[in-house]
Amino acid sequence: MIKFHSFYSFCRYYVLREARSALRHYFALSGKVPTGSSAKFAIFRHLTDLLRCQVADQSSPFYAFYNYCQTDRVVRQHGHQPRRILELGPGSNVGTLFCFVAGGAERAVGVDIQPMERPPEFYRILKDYLACVEASQWWWRPSYPCAWEDIDSQTLQERVEYFAPVSAHDLPFTEGEFDLVYSNAAMEHFDRPRDVVRQIHRVLSPGGLTIHHIDLSSHGFGDGHLSHLLLGREEYDCMAQKYGDGRGIDQRLQGKWKGVVYLNRLRAPDWKQLFLEAGMNVLSLDVLGKLDPATIDPLKLAEPFCNRSREELAPEIIRVVAQKPR
Q1: Assigned CATH class of 58-323
Q2: Domain locations in the chain?
Q3: What is the Cα–Cα distance from 322 to 326, expressed in whole angstroms?
Q4: How do residues 20-56 score in pLDDT, each as one tens digit?
Q5: 3, 81, 82, 113: which has the fewest Cβ within 10 Å?
Q6: Which of 17-21, 27-31, 139-143, 320-324 has the highest average model confidence (pLDDT)?
Q7: Whole-angstrom Cα distance, residue 71 to residue 74?
Q8: Bridge partners of 240?
């Protein structure tokens, strides 16, 4: 009984200590110091609401961490332990790669067609946020650093390599240089997707994993989720604008670029076929969001989409996981 009580006290002490540490970091992020229980609750709720809103904001540290968690979870589900990581089209920041470096990656590289600014404040906040969630990391990620107060965000940021302008269909890396290549909402914007997938296969090491979250929706073009499929190829290509030449995600988020963003308009079966053609094994293709097939009328769409089945047109967000054979 004494042993049990001691063990219970030990657990309670360390769990409460970690919880208090996390709360201190949350309050520090809010820039306020609570004076009582009600104040603590009010500040915590305010900050939680703020985080919830910014998780969907591509320029926020919380969005970067969310993408890291999504990718890292899939990696671990497939029993993979990548050390050399490449992200295609990180967009407004390299925060997800920053998280991989913090988690122990030996090398983290990002490539994009549009250069980006890398303000130190963004990565300082991200480092503080990682410190917030550290309270639970000891439970499921023992590889996480345990002394976040001693970690310099500038040092971590400088370890992330970034190259731009670089086209994903012509990667400046040697064969087998990475054991993980991933992207989040980038593959749908590449105008030479077949060449991009071949490049992924080339730079992956044998047994290397590639993970891509792909948004197949219209990206705000027209009134419906499939409105970008109403136009023929020539008409659409004349209207759509590709990333580059001063057009990037930052310009989009700031309202400086309001044109139609180019999409390659591939559907889920097309992406699977591209990875198979490149010589990779498709481990999974998961539909993360879809339309109700009953609401889709293929005959209203332009060629070749009018010849697709409702089931092929329904997926809006997919995740492709493939592996280069050993």
Answers
A1: alpha beta
A2: 1-54, 58-323
A3: 12
A4: 454 555 444 444 444 454 555 555 555 555 555 555 5
A5: 3
A6: 320-324
A7: 5
A8: 260
